[in-house]
Sequence to fold (266 residues):
Amino acid sequence: MAIAIYSARILFLPCVFSILLAAPGLAHAQLSVYPMEVSLTGGQVSITTIDVNSLSSETSYITATVKEVLDPRGPHEREVPLDSMQPDELVVLPHKFILAPHASKKLRLVFMRPVDHERVFRVAISGDPGVPVEVSADAASGASSTAAKQVKTHVSVQIQWEPLVRVLPLAPHVAYSARLENGAYLLRNDGNVRFLVRRLQLCSPGAGSCTPVSDQAWADGGNLYPGSEVKLHEGDAAGLRFDIVSRDGDEVKQVQATALLASPVK
Fold:
């Protein structure tokens, strides 16, 4: 009995996983991966690990591939596959291995070359074959006969985990500036690491009352990466304020939009 199989890609921040599934039956994932975000430092021998755990009763054949995320959160964001064994890029060891049922394996991530700005990678980790799932033929086709209910088929279900890997410069530096263009307020990251923009609000002069901005594309905030520029506000920016939060969350600065136009943070 043929069953239609389709794929879906589900995006999480900061992680991504892809899943190949069949409707209406679906088994649990065959792998778990932890952590889903790690950091390395360029310009030195930097090593971290990711744990891959089998949740399957069958042997899994694991493959790990590397992709670099270019222009993250920008209009031209894209992922470019890389050779996971190229020594001057992000190296994953091992990038292919056999995982016994309910066993665990540590992946070592190594990066050695200097970087002049933060770089973002994903390591796509998948197992082959997928987990067999029994789906009754009548569930798939709508048949109701007793004979049809006794027919079973196997569907391969496979989840691909994609933990995020950040490679940071040896000397992180936060810098930013702003400018006006055609009535829009633009914020630019002039440093070499990302920072978080949040709590956009319009404040009344002297009154001290502020209203959250809710009608702009960046109303909910987000990470702004080195070299990127974003339109924070359309219209009069006289009362615009927002927070800039360091990548580790240790430093929070409230910024007055008009003051930043005259005095960039360098």
